[in-house]
Design goal:
This protein is mostly helical and about 160 residues long. It contains five helices and no strands.
Length: about 160
């Protein structure tokens, strides 16, 4: 496909090469999603979530937010302590709170096997994953403005 100026916008060979290279990642992701889906489907089928009251859910969500905040602040402080620049500190904070869903589902399958209540065990993990996505998206725009301001001041100092 060519743009108006004649540049090639999409290179089909590159896309095919990328898809071939990333095929194993899709297989891993499918397995993880199937573990989550199966666990929650079995839990709903056996009405396990009826034992979780709204108060328990609110307390669980508050705990999840507390854990996220603690991890986010600690990774930021450690990155600052090591003298990371702003971009690297942001990367450390964003990556420091990730990997929970991927690792948690795999480990839960290993530790708890085919328990029917696996969905109930994964509930805090699912809340953590959803909340970290929402929080990080809100924080990302604030950090983007901060980085832009820092770069503008560096350019002003150089001039």
């Amino acid at each position: 496909m060519l743009s108006k100026k004649g540049y090639q916008v999409v290179n089909p060979k590159r896309i095919r090469r990328f898809i071939r290279k990333m095929r194993h990642c899709y297989a891993i992701l499918k397995k993880i999603l199937l573990i989550i889906y199966k666990s929650f489907a079995e839990s709903f089928a056996e009405n396990l979530f009826t034992s979780v009251s709204i108060i328990d859910l609110i307390l669980l969500f508050a705990g999840v937010l507390a854990v996220f905040s603690i991890i986010f602040i600690i990774t930021g402080l450690i990155a600052k302590l090591f003298g990371f620049n702003m971009e690297d500190r942001i990367t450390a904070q964003f990556c420091g709170t990730k990997k929970s869903l991927v690792h948690g589902t795999v480990f839960s399958k290993i530790l708890f096997g085919n328990m029917a209540s696996l969905g109930l065990i994964l509930l805090p993990l699912m809340l953590f994953h959803a909340s970290q996505i929402m929080i990080i998206s809100a924080i990302a725009s604030r950090f983007a403005r901060k980085v832009d301001a820092e770069k503008a001041s560096e350019l002003a100092n150089e001039a």
